[in-house]
Amino acid sequence: METKGKILVTGGAGYIGSHAVIELFQAGYEPVIIDNFVNSQESALAGIAAILNTDVTCHRIDCTEVAALREVFQNEGNIAGVIHFAAYKAVGESVREPLKYYHNNVGSLVALLQVMAEFNVTNLVFSSSCTVYGVPDQLPVTEETPVKKANSPYGNTKQICEDILTDLANSDGSKIHTIALRYFNPIGAHPSAKIGELPLGVPNNLVPFITQTAIGIREKLTVFGTDYDTSDGSNVRDYIHVVDLAKAHVVAIDRLLAGKAKQIEMFNIGTGQGNSVLEVVKTFEKVSGQKLNYEIGPRRAGDVPKIYADVTKATQELGFKTELGLEEGLASAWQWELNLKNNKK
Ligand code: WQD
Fold first, then answer.
1. For the NAD(P)-binding domain, which residue ranges apply (predicted)?
2. Number of domains the chain contains
């Protein structure tokens, strides 16, 4: 079947990657997954197949291995573009194991760029992060907000990767065009509840911890501090529905393949709204009908008190705006948690 082009999706069995594979396919592209399953599960492939009613090719390789990447590029041929999700992303874990993060997050990008150059693949969407802003002086953050010293090795790997991509774009003869999408806080799951977030072990992130508490896997949620300078004292974040975030990647691929992108572009991908932790808890209780067991605890090291996106640039230049809000995000996360429990039976 004729498609709009073959797109390699590294980390395509992961949380955001799997949702992007769905949107790419439904937009007429041929997604091909690369994943080593160190931070994802094979069940995601079954979920993708169930939604699309077809299997998606998956190469089980480590993106830091040039030879393995080269073999995939050789076998697949005529690759129109790459979306690079594959990376570790737990802020706290990166503080405990920095070398693991530098090797994987920076090493995989360098290996990928080498092989893309060898095969003359010149379109890249890079999964970046609002953590590059550190603790911003002004809110909402725009793409011109100064990148500050990262608050964690994880955030630093994203800054280093953006620097590598910028230096490459500015180097003589480089033909690669990159769109770096700076995510805020992805939440929720596909409306089919066949794919979603699968945290391995105790969740670091707020929303899976909430849904696991509500379903009885966790005893209670700890709210990490209510003594911040915010409306109710708890931290503020920009929670974007993962389906909206996935769609932003299709918009970026469209832009690259249409030749409309500059050599390197950064975009904030968020809702433009900030919500506090306590607002998220209250909204979850409303949409799920579940009373949540939570307590107030001490601040978590490395937490940024408040950050949310100015989305003007993505709106004006990408023509991208989110369509789903916090309630849909939390309701879909809850449906996914319920589906996980029912499937375990
Ligand atoms: C959100 C808020 C916590 C757990 C995420 C990703 C990171 C990056 C940025 C993409 C914070 C509070 C959490 C809990 C809590 N995204 N919280 N109790 O730290 O913003 O980072 O977005 O690159 O990869 O991890 O997200 O969900 O951990 O925390 O009170 O049990 O919830 O203090 O204010 P964070 P998070």
1. 8-331
2. 1
Q: Which CATH number fits the domain that encloses residue 182? A: 3.40.50.720
What is the extent of the structural domain holding 116?
Answer: 6-190+239-271+310-323
Report residues of the chain scoring pLDDT below 70: 345
For residue 224, which atom of ligand 1 is closest to its CA? 30
In a domain, 344, yes or no: no
Distance, CA of 194 to CA of 41 (rounded, Å): 13
Q: Which residues line ligand 1 (CB under 6 A)?
A: 89, 91, 129-131, 183, 185, 204-206, 209, 221-224, 235, 237, 277, 300, 303
Residue 228 in any domain: the answer is no
Is 154 known to be catalytic?
A: yes
DSSP 173-187: T---EEEEEEE-EEE
The model carries a pTM of 0.97
CA 186 / ligand 1 centre spacing (Å): 10
pLDDT of residue 345: 61
Q: Whose CA is nearest to atom 7 of ligand 1?
A: 89
**Spatial distance between the Cα atoms of 13 and 343, rounded to a whole number of angstroms:** 19
Measure the CA–CA gap between 264 and 167, rounded to whole angstroms.
10
Q: Which two tokens stand for residue 51?
A: 């939604």
Residue 66's pLDDT is what?
A: 98
Q: Which atom of ligand 1 is nearest to the CA of 154?
A: 24
